[in-house]
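Worked example 3 (structure in, sequence out).
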């Protein structure tokens, strides 16, 4: 442990907060618990100590044995501890809130930091008569009388006494950006050897982006098992409609906007570069939709594909500082979507190998009439890792890095409308100011006609008007206004710019 490590400065932040439950039918102590339709895959937020048992009882029901194998993935980057049975995490003092990106965090460092943070908290308690100061996601402080404080590891060991088949795997991933290629491999290697009905549970703090991202990968592994184990077997059944098993026949609602369908330029490039790109995107989109909210056929909260398009619409109405942050987030999410499709292609390739290119021993053991192989799901192996697959297709890494920012970040003003405004401004700016503002808004009305009525549309039009007025200002005024904006005397706001160009000029005189 280095001198004065960051974990010593960390704040104990309570994981749960007033409005953490975002779904109906709550499970006590296990926020946002749900099952992905069609898969034995479950998601939730960080449970309480009692919540772990409630979740696992719900997953097992009356059929699955409590001593059977259950895979639990924790996708959080923060060290987790339990204070009086309630989950809390160690956060840097400047990263208190519902979400936090903590950089490149390893599983081993998490375990080490959790044990150290318990010691840190115990040290703080000695100075306050057994009490510990905590904060919530809204930075409200609270002093807790501590009766017990343990690491997540200790809690899991206790849970295993009742559920001895539980496998708990930590894979700390980012909230917005894609998991690392090696993270996908960790998910796969943990799932190799499981059966088709082995339950998989995934959690982050609330049960949102990180859990949903990893759940998509877990569902795609289940699809690999179904395809590799059962499709060849079903093909031997006379009269069976094989199309019923084809995930890549999924069709999206073409009435949706192209961005909501995930038709970004970089994704089109990916689909073109993959041997079976169209089918891989279709299968990935189906799984994403099943992991999304009810409107796309799921039971969840986050729609990983459509969230990109929604963020892009929000981008148009934000100020410059907010746009910088959101632009980075949008590009991160496109990067994630890109890798999800690439991972789907990898799993599809592995399924084809399992069905058609087994060893002589596998063919003798699991061969079917017609030459295909039907290996039991828990005996399936993968011929290569996802990292190796990406090495073989290394050009994909360049495609995503160069293409994830290729979006039309600002709407183009029609050339004729711009020429008209520039002409009005050049001939007599002050005399034509009324018509200039009228024509700017008339142009905005046409340009943003695709947006539904409401505050978003009003703000988008107002922001467009502010930027367009700034764009056509005569040089004598433009330099002056830019200088005032740079000094933060005024902002890039329509009325502030108008004020400087009218009464502001009189004031200076």
């Amino acid at each position: 442990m280095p001198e004065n490590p960051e974990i010593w400065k960390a704040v104990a932040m309570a994981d749960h907060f007033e409005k953490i439950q975002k779904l109906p039918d709550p499970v006590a102590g296990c926020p946002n618990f749900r099952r992905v339709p069609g898969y034995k895959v479950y998601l939730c937020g960080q449970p309480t100590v009692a919540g772990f048992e409630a979740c696992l009882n719900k997953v097992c029901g009356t059929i699955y044995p409590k001593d059977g194998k259950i895979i639990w993935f924790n996708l959080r980057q923060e060290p987790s501890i339990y204070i009086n049975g309630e989950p809390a995490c160690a956060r840097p003092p400047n990263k208190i809130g519902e979400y936090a990106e903590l950089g490149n965090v390893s599983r081993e460092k998490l375990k080490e930091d959790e044990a150290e943070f318990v010691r840190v908290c115990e040290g703080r308690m000695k100075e306050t008569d057994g009490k510990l100061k905590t904060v919530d996601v809204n930075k409200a402080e609270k002093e807790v009388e501590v009766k017990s404080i343990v690491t997540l590891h200790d809690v899991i060991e206790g849970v295993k006494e009742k559920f001895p088949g539980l496998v708990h795997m930590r894979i700390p991933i980012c909230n917005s950006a894609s998991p690392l290629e090696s993270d996908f491999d960790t998910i796969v290697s943990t799932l190799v050897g499981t059966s088709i009905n082995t339950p998989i549970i995934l959690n982050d703090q609330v049960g949102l982006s990180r859990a949903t991202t990893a759940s998509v990968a877990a569902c795609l592994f289940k699809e690999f098992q179904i395809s590799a184990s059962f499709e060849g077997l079903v093909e031997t059944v006379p009269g069976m409609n094989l199309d019923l098993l084809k995930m890549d026949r999924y069709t999206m609602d073409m009435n949706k906007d192209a961005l909501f369908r995930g038709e970004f330029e970089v994704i089109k490039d990916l689909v073109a570069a993959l041997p079976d790109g169209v089918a891989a995107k279709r299968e990935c989109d189906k799984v994403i939709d099943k992991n999304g909210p009810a409107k796309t056929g799921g039971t969840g909260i986050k729609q990983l594909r459509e969230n990109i398009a929604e963020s892009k619409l929000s981008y148009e109405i934000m100020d410059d500082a907010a746009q910088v942050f959101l632009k980075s987030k949008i590009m991160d999410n496109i990067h994630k979507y890109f890798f999800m499709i690439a991972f789907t292609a990898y799993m599809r390739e592995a399924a084809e190998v399992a069905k058609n290119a087994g060893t002589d021993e596998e063919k003798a053991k699991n061969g079917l009439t017609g030459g295909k192989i039907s290996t039991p799901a828990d005996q399936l192996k993968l011929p290569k890792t996802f990292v190796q697959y990406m090495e073989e297709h290394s050009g994909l890494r360049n495609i995503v890095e160069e293409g994830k920012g290729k979006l039309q970040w600002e709407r183009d003003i029609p050339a004729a409308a711009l020429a008209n405004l520039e002409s009005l401004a050049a001939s007599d700016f002050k005399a034509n100011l009324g018509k200039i503002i009228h024509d700017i808004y008339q142009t905005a009305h046409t340009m943003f006609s695709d947006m539904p009525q409401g505050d978003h549309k009003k703000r988008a039009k107002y922001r467009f008007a502010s930027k367009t007025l700034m764009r056509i200002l005569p040089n004598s005024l433009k330099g002056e206004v830019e200088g005032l904006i740079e000094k933060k005397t005024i902002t890039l706001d329509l009325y502030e710019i108008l004020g400087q160009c009218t009464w502001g000029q009189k004031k200076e005189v």
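Notes: The CA atoms of residues 72 and 168 lie 5 Å apart. The first helix runs from residue 49 to 60.
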